[in-house]
């Protein structure tokens, strides 16, 4: 198969999943109402009427159907891919996470069963699928740090953390879907550059499924993805980021961390905020990134588009990092961390009094 035919086949998979998602989402919305999977307004929500959630089921079904169709029609023609049966752990893990998300959208599960379901999905892809982060490269110190017996726990921690990071950022119409799409576009681009066709294909199928859903989910939303969608997107992004970049040069986990800079930063500073404010880490609040931007006067749509832009900047930085020298990568990461810290302090993501860097800079500027 020529390069142009290969790209064409991959784009067809994106188009098919996109059209399927557009077709399936209204039916999933009706099903959500029948099952009682609805989101009611409260003091933490930005919407003012009862909305169907569980829309992520449409994303999953579009992905699943397209994945199977694509495999049956193009598998033997695409080079550099693994055997189809070797990908069953990915699908089974996704099915587990979808069932947990649906159960939560319908019955509003407690934190413990949700967490156990996420760990189970991670265990499936790690133990059955063989996905592990086995080492991390540490320039300037040692060539390679082997994780050994800690490789499985670290991999599971990564998957569960990203699942929850995507879930936490799902607070405005189209926000989680758009940020996830931008992350997946970055992953697909880098996978194609590296020749990893399987990762690129799965990413493109999920991109198409999510874009089709965003037709109904962008502000003003007609349906929410719910935990069904947020957990699924987090799972897929976490797995693909490891499959595509676990053996990169320099610092192995830095690339996917940069790609997911927006949800990871929001989650990290949410933890800091709750520690500083002496609240339980699991406590819900209305001080996430999107809440802070709205409090600054941005509209719902402006806030979402601004966060999209931030996510795109992180994606571009990840691509640059992949091809940078060791010193270039170090300067890039340092610059990103400083920019994130200043931005966090400016918008009050931790609290209005948390401004250590700004206060230090202000002190140095005083005569």
Indicate the mean pLDDT: 85
DSSP strand content: under 5%
CA gyration radius, whole angstroms:
20 Å
- N-to-C span: 68 Å
Structural class determined from secondary elements: mainly alpha
**Assembly category:** single chain
Uncertain runs: 247-251
**Major beta sheet, specifics?**
2 strands, antiparallel
Give, in order, the helices and strands.
HEEHHHEEHHHHHHHHHH
Strand order of the largest sheet: 1-2
Mass-distribution shape: globular
Number of helical stretches of at least 4 residues: 14
Number of strands: 4
- What proportion of the residues is helical, as a percent range? 55-70%
Would you give an account of this structure?
- Helices cover 69% and strands 4% of the residues.
- Strands 1-2 form a two-stranded antiparallel sheet. It has a two-stranded antiparallel ribbon with strand order 3-4.
- Residues 247-251 have low confidence and may be disordered.
- With 367 residues, it is mostly helical.
- The protein is globular, with a radius of gyration of 20 Å.
- The protein starts with a helix and ends with a helix.
- A hairpin with a 3-residue loop joins β3 and β4 (142-146).
- α3 packs antiparallel against α4 (111-128), α5 (151-168) crosses α10 and α6 packs parallel to α12.
